Each structure stands twice: as structure tokens, then as C-alpha cells.
């Protein structure tokens, strides 16, 4: 079979990674300790916590015993007392699951804990539980800090979760401190969080139409019968409540009533709370307005995204600029959005996107000098989709090599190896505790700040047979402006023939599973190439080989054989167009066929493939396609001896073009 040799070699590489998980780097558990800790973790899984700790205490190396102790301290119903928890928190600030430790410490606080100790504790660590916050408020009152106590108590009422009994006690003791706005804010929070019983109780306390508002919002949220009648009952003064409008719009979206959604969202409400909740709805409505050619409506919905930073800001500014440029035909307005996007983001992907499209807007205005300026800014980010498109606009090939940071020095490696969390990772690898080990690898990644930190954490993950964690670390490093080529674009020692097919295969696996063959997605996709069982079964039948679901995660070669066959089917279906084949691999060919009918065929002249890629309705698929297409030339560069050209044939390859 085509690629079979590559599959075999890659499988060997993955097997070597898995076996390297036993690498010790000088830290080695004795056979007796391994036996004890294997038994202790089995006892822990059986919820025999005391027995597990007793077994672990017999081992010579005490560090895995500390992990078992930490697992006991962080569980929901730990029996540890406050002194134990406080000591562990104080001595181990870098260990994972700090919030669990704080939660349990607050619950375990003794009744006779002095006010001075209480105040010192909470001044260093803000409360995370209702009981802890109330203890803190009482201590503040006794210390004569009434205003600070009142502010905290109002925050507890609005933001914290209270049981029915706690609500009654709270109102009896502190009800006089609460203002009507505090009650309204609590109701609003409960409704946004869909806490139905608590919201109904709270609405009855307020009265004056809030009972009807709460009932309507809850029926809308849970799609219960009687929605229309409940909506009509909401009094006029509350019909403009942002949460009520949102729930109505969300209900209409779930019913497929796009025009009805737009009627509620346009004109936009820029001051609406929770922009992170509103944005997916606005985004969907804006794209729907585009489909109906209501371009100004689409622009208004996108431009009033409500964000000042973050992913929503980046998506909103870009979408508003793109609509203004491509559909409203207003390059000046578009240019302002793209510049604002560029100035307001920090990640290479978003910076390149803002700069490239600012160049496109300048080009549309006829300002070639300004366009070149922006293309050059975008092209600095050569590992990104839009950085590569900018290089193409400038007529530049991809550089001969990727930038490489300075490798860690021997003293850096020694310091890293001495870190307790690093030793924990290596010891857990020796006793097969992958799930627990993952928490510590992730913690090291989040703590990384220097090139050496990122490099050595990624190296450690690879050593432990977790290429997915190594890749995540390298991606985190890239967000900080550091490129770790060996970890960001894993490359086994493979022959270079048929290089472009091989680079596409690597790019797909990198995006699908991050080279970790045991991964199962929330949707049920499995293994290296993230095959859905039903798809894998169909492909196996077509290849006339037995279908074994377990082999999708246990046998990398089996997964890849089916995955390569399916990807090849998609490439054949779309005459070699990688854009369409990748979209189909992710979202299904039937959807792609529908999108071709809606947006045109990007293989044909007159349909811009970049705009087509951006019109894909699913954000996941848009991102998927771009991340793979940008990785292919980087893999090609890593496997080539010289410069790599950047042809834009990923949309049209193999499709007959007119002379």
C-alpha cells in the first residue's frame, strides 16, 4: 500500500517514544518500590486511601508517596485536617490542583481558629468557598473592618453558591446589608448559570415582574413547553433585559430561525454583559446575514463584539474587517479593524492575520507601499497560515531554516532535573501512572517562562512517551515568541521520497492527535488520525481488512492505514484539492459539497480559496484547515535541503484549469 513504508517507520518511532517513558535520567525506583507503588495506586483507585498511604509509606523513595498524599488531600471528601492542608499548601505552592487544596482547607478550618490566623490566611489567599468567605467576613467585622466585611458579604450573595439553608441563614444575619440591586444581580447570575430552583426562589424575593422574567428565561433556556406564553407575560420594563434577549435569541437559533435571531440582535447592544456568551450567537448571525447578502447588518453584528482583548476580540475585529473589505467594499473601514486587530493581539497566528489583511485592505485602496509594509510584518511569522500567504504576496520563498533558540546548557539541565515536579514526572512514568503524570507535565508547561523551561519541559514529555504534551509545550512557547522546531513539528527519521504526501500526513496527525496514539476525543474520534469508529469500519470494509475498534488506539499502524486510506479518498473526491479534502476529513464530505454550492468552487477561477476557507461555517473546521495547511510547508522545509516555495495549489491541485 502507498505510504506503508512510512507508516511502519513512524510506528517504530512511536513505539520508541512509548518505551522511552521508562527513561529515568538518574532517578530509578527499586523493584521493591515499584511493586509497592503499583499496589498503592491500585488501592487508591479502589478508594482505599488509608491503605494506599500505608503501603506507600513502606517504600524507600518517598516522592511517589507524596503524590499519593497529595491525591488524598485534593479529593472531595478528604479526611485531612486544616493543619495538614495548610502545611502542604505553604510548602508546595507549585503543585497542581491548588484550588482543591484551598477548598478543602477552608472546609477543615477549626471553629477555634483565631481571628488573627483567619485574617492572615484570607489576606494571602482570597476565599474560594461560601463557608470560607463567611468566616472571613465575620473576622473582618470583629476586627472593626465593617465596610470591607459588607463588601465581601454582598459579593458572597451575588457570586457564591448557597444552599437553601445557607440562603435563609444569610438573609437572617446579613439581609439588612443587601440592596435591591444586589438581589437583582444575584438573580441574573443564577439565570445565566441555569440554577433553576435557586433562581425561582430569588425571583420571588424581588417580585415586581422578576418572577415572570425568571420563568420565561428558564423555559427558554431548557426549551420547555409554554415558552410563548411565558415570554408574553414578561412586563414591558423588563423586556429589554439583556439576559432575556439573549435567551430568546438562543432559543430561536436552536429552532433554526435565523431572521428571528437577527431581529433581536440588530441593532446590537454593545454594553450587554457576558460578551463571551453573546459572541458565538452574534458570529453565527453575522455569517447568516452574509449568506442573505445583508452586508451592513452582518457588519454591525460583527463589529459590536463587545470585547477589548482575547479570542473574541480577535475574531470580532477580523470578521468585521473582512466583511467591510470583501462585501461592504469599504477598504478604509476594513483597514481600521485590521490595524486594531494587529495592535490588540500578541499570538503569532493573530498578529499575522491582522497584518496580512491590513495589507489586503491597503492594496484594495491602491496603496501598494502600505500594503508591502503590512505583508512584511505578517511574513515575520513564517509558521502561520497568513504569514505564509504574505510571503507569497511578496514573492518570497520560505526561509532556508526555521529560527532555533539556544539549546539549554548543562547547568540548565541539571537545575531542571533537580526540580521536584520533574522528578515526580519521571517516577510516575516508571509505575505507569499516565493520567496523574499528565497533571504534572501540564503544570510544568504552565510554569515555563524561559526558552530553557519550554525546551526541557517538551523534552521531558517526549522522554515520557507524551508527544502531545511536548507539542502543547512548544505551542505555548510559540505564543511567547519562541520557536522550538523539533518539538513544534515532530519529525521522525523518515526517507524523503514522496515528500509532499508525507508532509501532509505529518501535518494531519499533528493537528488530529498531536502524535499521541491513545487519545480519544469527546466526540469519540480515536487514535493518531482521530477516526470515528463508523468511518473506520467503512474504510476497513473497503480495504477488505478486519475492523477492530480497540486497535484504533492500540495499534498506530492500523489507525494510520485506515486514516491514510480515508484521506486519500477525500483527495480523490476533490481532485487533489487539499483545502476541500481537509475540510471533508474534519466535517464530512456532504457538508463540503453543500458549502461548494453555497460559496462556489474554490478550484475554479473567480472563487478566492482564502475567502472560501474563511467562509466555512464551523470555527473548528476553519481553524483545522488553516493549521494543517500552514504546517505542510514547514514540514517540507524541515525535510528539504534548501528554500521552499509557497505555491497556493492547496485549493486547486489536480483540478483542470482553463488555458
What are its keywords?
659 residues, mainly alpha, 37 helices, globular, disordered C terminus
General description of the model:
- It contains 37 helices and no strands.
- By secondary structure, the chain is mainly α.
- Among the domains are: 179-256, no CATH class; 499-639, Lysozyme, CATH 1.10.530.10.
- α3 runs antiparallel to α4 (63-74).
- The longest helix is centred in the last third of the chain and has 21 residues, at 619-639.
- It is globular and about 75 Å long.
Please summarize what this structure is.
With 659 residues, the chain is mostly helical.
Number of helices: 37
Quickly name the level 1 CATH class of the domain at 499-639: Mainly Alpha
Largest sheet geometry? none
Q: What is the overall silhouette? A: globular
* Number of distinct beta strands: 0
What distance lies between the first and last C-alpha atoms, to the nearest angstrom? Answer: 35 Å
Rg, alpha carbons? 29 Å
Structural class: mainly alpha
Mean pLDDT: 92
CATH architecture of the domain at 499-639: Orthogonal Bundle
Helix content: 55-70%
Strand content: under 5%
Low-confidence stretches: 654-659
Amino acid at each position: 500500500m502507498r505510504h506503508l513504508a512510512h507508516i511502519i517507520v513512524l510506528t517504530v518511532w512511536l513505539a520508541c517514544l512509548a518505551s522511552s517513558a521508562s527513561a529515568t535520567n538518574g532517578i530509578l525506583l527499586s523493584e521493591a518500590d515499584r511493586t509497592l507503588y503499583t499496589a498503592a495506586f491500585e488501592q487508591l483507585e479502589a478508594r482505599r486511601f488509608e491503605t494506599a498511604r500505608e503501603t506507600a509509606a513502606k517504600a524507600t523513595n518517598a516522592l511517589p508517596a507524596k503524590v499519593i498524599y497529595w491525591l488524598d488531600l485534593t479529593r472531595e471528601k478528604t479526611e485531612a485536617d486544616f493543619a495538614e492542608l495548610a502545611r502542604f499548601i505553604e510548602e508546595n505552592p507549585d503543585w497542581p490542583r491548588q484550588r482543591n487544596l484551598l477548598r478543602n482547607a477552608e472546609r477543615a478550618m477549626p471553629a477555634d481558629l483565631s481571628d488573627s490566623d483567619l485574617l492572615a490566611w484570607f489576606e494571602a489567599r482570597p476565599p474560594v468557598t461560601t463557608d470560607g468567605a463567611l468566616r472571613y467576613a465575620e473576622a473582618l467585622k470583629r476586627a472593626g473592618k465593617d465596610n470591607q466585611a459588607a463588601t465581601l458579604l454582598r459579593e458572597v450573595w451575588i457570586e457564591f453558591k448557597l444552599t437553601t439553608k445557607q440562603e435563609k441563614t444569610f438573609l437572617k444575619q446579613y439581609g439588612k446589608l443587601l440592596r435591591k440591586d444586589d438581589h437583582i444581580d444575584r438573580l441574573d447570575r443564577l439565570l445565566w448559570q441555569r440554577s433553576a430552583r435557586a433562581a425561582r426562589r430569588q425571583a420571588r424575593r424581588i417580585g415586581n415582574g422578576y418572577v415572570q422574567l425568571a420563568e420565561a428565561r428558564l423555559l427558554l433556556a431548557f426549551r420547555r413547553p409554554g415558552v410563548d406564553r411565558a415570554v408574553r407575560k414578561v412586563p414591558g420594563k423588563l423586556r429589554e433585559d439583556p439576559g432575556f434577549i439573549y435567551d430568546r435569541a438562543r432559543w430561536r437559533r436552536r429552532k433554526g430561525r435565523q431572521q428571528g435571531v437577527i431581529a433581536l440582535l440588530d441593532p446590537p447592544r454593545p454594553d450587554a454583559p457576558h460578551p463571551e456568551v453573546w459572541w458565538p450567537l452574534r458570529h453565527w448571525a453575522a455569517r447568516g446575514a452574509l449568506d442573505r447578502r445583508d452586508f451592513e447588518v452582518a457588519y454591525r453584528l460583527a463589529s459590536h463584539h463587545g470585547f477589548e482583548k482575547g479570542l473574541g476580540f480577535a475574531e470580532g475585529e477580523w470578521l468585521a474587517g473582512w466583511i467591510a473589505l470583501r462585501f461592504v467594499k469599504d477598504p478604509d473601514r476594513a483597514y481600521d479593524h485590521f490595524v486594531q486587530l494587529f495592535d490588540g493581539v500578541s499570538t503569532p497566528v493573530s498578529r499575522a492575520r491582522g497584518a496580512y489583511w491590513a495589507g489586503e485592505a491597503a492594496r484594495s485602496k491602491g496603496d501598494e507601499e502600505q500594503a508591502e509594509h503590512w505583508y512584511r510584518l505578517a511574513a515575520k511569522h513564517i509558521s502561520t497560515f497568513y504569514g505564509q500567504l504574505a510571503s507569497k504576496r511578496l514573492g518570497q520563498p520560505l526561509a532556508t531554516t526555521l529560527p532555533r533558540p539556544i539549546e539549554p546548557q548543562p547547568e540548565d539541565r541539571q537545575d531542571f532535573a533537580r526540580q521536584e515536579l520533574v522528578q515526580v514526572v519521571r517516577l510516575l512514568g516508571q509505575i505507569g501512572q499516565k493520567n496523574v503524570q499528565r497533571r504534572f507535565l501540564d503544570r510544568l508547561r504552565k510554569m515555563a517562562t524561559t526558552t530553557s523551561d519550554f525546551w526541557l519541559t517538551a523534552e521531558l514529555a517526549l522522554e515520557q512517551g507524551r508527544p502531545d504534551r511536548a507539542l502543547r509545550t512548544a505551542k505555548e512557547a510559540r505564543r511567547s515568541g519562541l520557536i522550538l522546531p523539533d518539538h513544534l513539528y515532530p519529525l521522525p527519521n523518515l526517507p524523503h521520497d514522496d515528500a509532499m504526501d508525507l508532509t501532509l500526513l505529518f501535518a494531519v496527525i499533528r493537528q488530529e492527535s498531536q502524535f499521541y496514539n491513545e487519545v480519544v476525543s469527546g466526540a469519540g474520534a480515536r487514535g493518531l488520525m482521530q477516526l470515528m469508529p463508523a468511518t473506520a469500519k467503512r474504510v476497513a470494509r473497503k480495504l477488505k481488512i478486519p475492523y477492530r475498534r480497540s486497535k484504533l488506539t492500540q495499534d498506530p499502524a492500523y489507525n494510520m492505514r485506515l486514516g491514510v486510506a480515508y484521506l486519500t479518498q477525500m483527495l480523490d473526491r476533490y481532485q487533489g484539492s487539499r483545502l476541500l479534502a481537509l475540510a471533508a476529513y474534519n466535517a464530512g464530505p456532504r457538508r463540503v459539497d453543500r458549502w461548494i454550492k453555497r460559496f462556489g468552487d474554490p478550484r475554479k477561477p473567480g472563487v478566492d480559496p482564502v475567502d472560501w476557507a474563511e467562509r466555512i461555517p464551523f470555527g473548528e473546521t476553519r481553524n483545522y484547515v488553516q493549521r494543517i495547511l500552514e504546517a505542510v510547508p514547514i514540514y517540507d522545509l524541515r525535510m528539504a535541503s534548501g528554500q521552499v516555495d509557497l505555491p497556493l495549489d492547496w485549493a486547486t491541485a489536480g483540478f483542470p484549469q482553463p488555458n
